[in-house]
User: Which sequence fits this backbone?
C-alpha cells in the first residue's frame, strides 16, 4: 500500500485531501500543529502527529513512517497578516517547507506535491484567465514565500532528483472552511449571514476572484501524486466572481434579511484574479467537478449543520 504523508492534514484543504487519498486506497500519515487545523477534521483512518513543520521532530516521523509520497499543505495562509508579519510568514512558509524538503531527500521520497497560490503569485495580471507562463510578480509576502518555495522545488528537483508538482490554487472554498481566522470571503459571509449579521464588503465589491471547490482541489492533489509530470499547475475554474455576486447569492441561499454594507477598500488589494487551468486538464485529466452555484449550496448546507 502506498504511504502518503500530508502536512496540514487537519486543516480545511488538507483534511479534504486526506479523505480523497484514503478513498483512493492509500495509507495516510498526517502532520499538523493544530494552529488552524482541527482534530474533528481528521479522518480516523489516518495516523496523526501533532508537530510543527519547523520542528526537528519532523525527521523522526519521516524515519519511522517512511512515506512514499508527501503532500505539503501546511502553511501560513493569511495574505494581510503576511504584510504585517513578513518574517513570521517566511519562517512558516519558507523555513518550514525547507525542513520538509530536506527530509524528503534524506528519506528518498518519490514525489512531493506542494500547495502554492494562483491568486497571490501573479499579482494584478494583465492576462485573464492567467496561465502558468505569465510573469510571477507577487505583491504580498505570502505570494513571495510561495514563489520562493517553487524555486526551491526546482532546485531540489534538479540537484537531488526530487520530482515535484506545485499546485497554484485559486480561491478555495467549501465544507470545513473556518469562518474565522484565515478564512476566505465565502466562509466569512456565510458564517455571518447565518447569524443574521451584516458582512462587510471592502470597497465597491467589484473585485473578482476565481473560486474553486475544495473537493476539486483534493482531486487535483491525488492526480498530481499519481502522475509522472512535474512543474507548476494552476487549479481553478477560469471564471471570475465578484464579492457583490457572492454576497447576493449567499443572501438568497441563507434567507438572511440584511443590507449590503460597504467599507473602505483595502490598500493594495488585487482587483482581479482568475486562473487558466488548461495545463492541468491536459496533463492530469483534471476538470471542474462542482460548479459555483452547486458548491455554494454544499457550503451553506455544511455551515448550517456545523454551527
Assistant:
Amino acid at each position: 500500500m502506498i504511504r502518503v504523508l500530508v502536512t496540514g492534514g487537519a486543516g480545511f484543504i488538507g483534511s479534504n485531501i486526506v479523505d480523497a487519498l484514503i478513498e483512493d486506497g492509500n495509507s495516510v500519515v498526517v502532520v499538523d500543529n493544530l494552529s488552524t487545523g482541527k482534530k474533528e477534521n481528521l479522518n480516523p483512518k489516518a495516523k496523526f502527529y501533532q508537530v510543527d513543520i519547523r520542528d526537528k521532530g519532523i525527521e523522526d516521523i519521516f524515519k519511522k513512517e517512511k512515506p512514499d509520497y508527501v503532500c505539503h499543505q501546511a502553511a501560513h495562509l493569511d495574505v494581510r497578516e503576511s504584510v504585517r508579519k513578513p518574517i513570521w510568514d517566511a519562517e512558516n512558509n519558507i523555513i518550514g517547507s525547507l525542513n520538509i524538503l530536506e527530509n524528503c531527500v534524506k528519506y528518498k521520497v518519490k514525489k512531493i506535491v506542494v500547495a502554492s497560490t494562483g491568486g497571490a503569485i501573479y499579482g494584478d495580471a494583465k492576462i485573464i484567465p492567467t496561465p502558468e507562463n505569465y510573469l510571477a510578480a507577487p505583491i504580498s509576502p505570502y505570494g513571495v514565500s510561495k514563489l520562493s518555495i517553487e524555486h526551491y522545488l526546482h532546485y531540489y528537483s534538479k540537484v537531488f532528483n526530487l520530482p515535484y508538482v506545485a499546485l497554484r490554487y485559486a480561491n478555495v472554498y467549501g465544507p470545513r472552511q473556518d469562518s474565522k481566522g484565515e478564512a476566505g470571503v465565502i466562509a466569512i459571509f456565510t458564517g455571518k449571514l447565518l447569524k443574521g449579521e451584516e458582512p462587510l464588503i471592502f470597497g465597491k465589491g467589484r473585485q473578482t476572484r476565481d473560486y474553486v471547490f475544495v473537493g476539486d482541489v483534493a482531486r487535483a492533489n491525488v492526480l498530481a501524486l499519481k502522475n509522472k509530470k512535474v512543474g507548476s499547475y494552476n487549479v481553478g475554474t477560469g471564471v471570475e466572481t465578484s464579492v457583490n455576486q457572492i454576497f447576493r447569492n449567499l443572501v438568497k441561499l441563507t434567507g438572511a434579511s440584511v443590507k449590503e454594507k460597504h467599507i473602505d477598500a483595502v490598500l493594495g488589494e488585487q482587483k482581479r484574479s482568475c486562473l487558466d487551468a488548461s495545463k492541468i486538464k491536459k496533463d492530469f485529466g483534471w476538470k471542474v467537478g462542482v460548479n459555483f452555484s452547486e458548491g455554494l449550496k454544499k457550503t451553506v448546507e455544511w455551515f448550517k449543520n456545523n454551527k
